[in-house]
Specification:
Number of helices: 11
CATH architecture of the domain at 168-298: 3-Layer(aba) Sandwich
Structural class: alpha/beta
Oligomer: single chain
Distance between the termini: 29 Å
Strand order of the largest sheet: 2-1-3-4
Order of helices and strands: EHHHEHEHEHEHHEHEHEH
Mean pLDDT: 97
Helix content: 40-55%
Shape: globular
Radius of gyration: 20 Å
Largest sheet: 4 strands, parallel
């Protein structure tokens, strides 16, 4: 009797440069910032600004930042995502085949679909690795995957894991990370930091801010935190237009006037990357201490923590059967 083909699972995160060099970062940023779902500006004007100003200036600066977090395994985001893939494969078993892809850079979505077809998969579950939905992340991933499928001769059936910003398993996994990192540490206040987004996108209907607020409230409740014992901030602002506030770069140093010991978590990032390892652990921590803070504790991202992998497997199984 022939065994049934495995159900495919395609994990997709945002991506990373292939190397911590200015040329590699430039290639990555050109693809990332050239996506009209990420930067919603006049395409001709933006092309001139991107290629004439931003890439020449930002690429060398970003390359230095990537060098500060690059490891023997390469990009932290890619390495942590591979660990997630391998752990999820073990958790799901042989009836599933788990593949990793990136929206920008490699491994590409096309390569991921090639692997699923090579393994005989007839259907697959797409897992955008962004708990909170935004058109700039989950939205562009879904569009890219559907576009790639439309160009392929095969017929892979697609199911998509829905936004899981308030999923109990996800919330418990983040809470566990926070508890483990703060055990024995001095903590006077908690900070939950999410990647920022232009306010204009939210006014136009993007639900991202509402999802972040829901996650923060659920996480605070799970940790037993009362009102006033935690703050929500948004990081990684880019450009001059207003982004979601409060800005982490301003709000967190200001907290040093009232609290000398902070614990920080980044619930919107499924895997540690430049934005968590350099921007939060190093840069924001330095600014907090320069403003008078004393203790800076940052919880690792979910990465391949067993509680997260178990929660992720539940999301995949639930989606695979259509419930």
């Amino acid at each position: 009797m022939t065994a049934a083909p495995p159900t495919g699972v395609l994990l997709v995160n945002v991506g990373s440069p292939s190397a911590p060099t200015a040329p590699a970062v430039r290639r990555y940023l050109r693809e990332f910032l050239g996506d009209p779902d990420v930067v919603k500006l006049n395409r001709v004007v933006w092309w001139l600004v991107l290629n004439g100003i931003i890439l020449p200036i930002r690429s060398p600066k970003s390359a230095k930042l990537y060098q500060s977090v690059w490891t023997e395994h390469g990009s932290p985001l890619i390495h942590n995502s591979r660990l997630q893939r391998d752990a999820l494969q073990r958790e799901l078993g042989s009836s599933f085949h788990v593949v990793l892809a990136m929206r920008y850079g490699e491994p590409s979505i096309a390569q991921g679909l090639d692997e699923l077809e090579a393994r005989g998969c007839r259907e697959f579950v797409l897992v955008p690795m962004f708990p909170q939905y935004s058109g700039t992340t989950t939205g562009t991933v879904e569009k890219a995957v559907k576009g790639a499928l439309a160009r392929r001769p095969g017929k892979l059936a697609l199911r998509v894991v829905p936004p899981h910003f308030d999923d109990p398993g996800y919330i418990e996994a983040v809470a566990t990370r926070v508890r483990e990192s703060t055990a024995g540490a001095r903590v006077e206040h908690h900070v939950f930091s999410f990647h920022g987004l232009p306010e204009r996108y939210v006014r136009d209907g993007d639900p991202y801010r509402d999802h972040c607020v829901a996650t923060a409230n659920a996480l605070a409740q799970r940790l037993g935190l009362k009102e006033g014992e935690w703050s929500l901030v948004f990081q990684s602002r880019f450009g001059r237009e207003p982004w979601l506030q409060p800005y982490a770069a301003e709000a967190v140093p200001a907290l040093a006037k009232r609290y000398k010991a902070l614990a920080v978590a980044c619930p919107g990032f499924a895997a540690d990357c430049l934005e968590t390892l350099e921007e939060i652990c190093e840069g924001l921590g330095h600014d907090f201490k320069a403003a008078g803070g004393e203790s800076w504790t940052v919880a690792p991202c979910l990465n391949d923590h067993p509680r997260w992998i178990a929660a992720l497997a539940t999301l995949v199984r639930r989606t695979a059967v259509g419930s």
